[in-house]
Design goal:
The protein contains 10 helices and 16 strands. By secondary structure, the chain is α+β, with helices and mostly antiparallel strands. The strands form 5 sheets. It has a 5-stranded mixed sheet with strand order 1-9-16-15-14, with helices on both faces. Bound molecules: coenzyme A.
Length: 353
């Protein structure tokens, strides 16, 4: 095992023996994207890159970016509203709003702004930060609140606006990321019907430097000789090769553990629903489990890496276009900065798009 913290659970949700409503059903989804799309070709007018280079190394063809008047709150709220509508819920029905993001409008928390925009007056709302693993970690977290009986209905949002934090003159990183938001509505159900059939989560902070969006080392004079740190973050910094090696090693390993512990064979999976970072990573994971390409969900050609949003964005697209159907089994994995990574075995139970 890597030098990190491990947490795992398999089978029905914890507490299933004492709480009959200990399962979590995935019953609605929604997404929202900024209107502006920038193609590789367009980006090559800003930095020294090319469509051929980006496509061959990543599979990315374009990415969406928010304009100056499009805060994360707006995108995240639109995505959540669509998930509520899809589930057939009213905003007052929601007990918990979890917003997975690394690019909040407010470092004190953006989820309460989303709560207000939705009119979800009965919901407690808070942010959760785990970079590109954020949605998966938030979904599992919602599952624990539901399993304990504390929460009946939750909206889990993955939303990021990394265009704010990318150095648009750094061709090694700016070509990879895009903005977007998506959400899943989850509710308590019988343990036997749970849509969260098992999960694994890992962190390894000893490799944190591989991918950071870190506080800058700037100071502000306070009183005489006394100074304090001045708030501010440096643009995204990444060791691409190390992150690539991390992903192609750890994602298959954690998925393997998940499948073994839940007793599910790769052939039983309807879909692989992986964090959309790089097509080569998706292909490597699919090959490892002999999952045919047509059962690997991929939309990064259009949106790039939208960080916490990629997994629910992909799910929403595939539910809406009729690929993912009620009862389908999905193996999902999120991975990224932290370093953090995780996997979950999910069953979609929501209505069609
Ligand atoms: N356009 C053109 N050339 C580029 C480029 C770009 N956008 N970015 C880097 N290059 C150049 C480099 O400068 C280097 O040139 P040099 O050999 O003259 O120095 C060359 O391409 C190779 O760079 P390298 O970093 O070795 O490329 P790579 O094959 O490792 O591919 C990534 C780079 C970023 C695509 C790849 O490492 C990757 O996908 N890593 C994972 C990143 C990721 O998914 N991060 C998010 C995780 S959640």
């Amino acid at each position: 095992m890597p030098n990190g913290v491990s947490l795992s659970l398999t089978g029905p949700m914890a507490g299933a023996g004492t709480n009959p409503a200990a399962g979590m059903a995935l019953v609605g989804c929604g997404s929202a994207l900024p209107a502006v799309s920038i193609s590789n070709e367009e980006l090559s007018r800003r930095v020294d890159t090319s469509d051929a280079w980006i496509r061959s190394r990543t599979g990315i063809g374009a990415r969406r970016v928010c304009g100056p008047d499009e805060p994360l709150t707006v995108l995240a709220s639109q995505a959540a509203r669509r998930a509520l509508e899809h589930a057939g819920w009213r905003p007052e029905d929601v007990d918990l709003i979890l917003l997975a993001t690394s690019s909040p409008d407010d470092l004190f928390g953006t989820a309460p702004r989303v709560q207000a925009a939705l009119g979800a007056t009965g919901a407690v709302a808070f942010d959760l930060t785990a970079a590109c693993s954020g949605f998966l970690f938030a979904l599992v977290t919602a599952g624990q609140y539901i399993a304990s009986g504390a929460v009946r209905r939750a909206v889990v949002i993955g939303a990021d606006q990394l265009s704010r934090w990318v150095d648009w003159d750094d061709r090694r990183t700016c070509v990879l990321f895009g903005d977007g938001a998506a959400a899943v509505a989850v509710e308590a159900c019988a343990a036997a019907d749970t849509g969260l059939l098992g999960f694994r989560m890992r962190s390894d902070g000893s490799r944190n430097a591989c991918l950071t969006l870190a506080q800058t080392d700037s100071r502000a004079a306070l009183l005489g000789e006394l100074s304090t740190q001045k708030g501010g973050f440096a643009p995204i910094h990444m060791n691409g090769q190390e992150v690539y090696k991390f992903a192609v090693r750890e994602v298959p390993a954690i998925l393997q553990e998940l499948l073994e512990s839940t007793g599910v064979a790769p052939a039983q999976l309807d879909w692989l629903l992986l964090h959309q970072a790089n097509q080569r990573i998706l292909d490597a994971v699919a090959e490892r489990f002999a999952v045919p390409a047509e059962r690997v969900l991929s939309n990064l050609a259009h949106y790039g890496n939208t960080s916490a949003a990629t997994i629910p964005l992909m799910l929403d697209e595939a539910v809406r276009d009729g690929r993912v159907l009620s009862g389908h089994l999905l193996a999902s994995s999120g991975f990224g900065a932290g370093l953090s990574w995780g996997a979950a075995l999910l069953r979609w139970q929501g209505p069609p798009g």
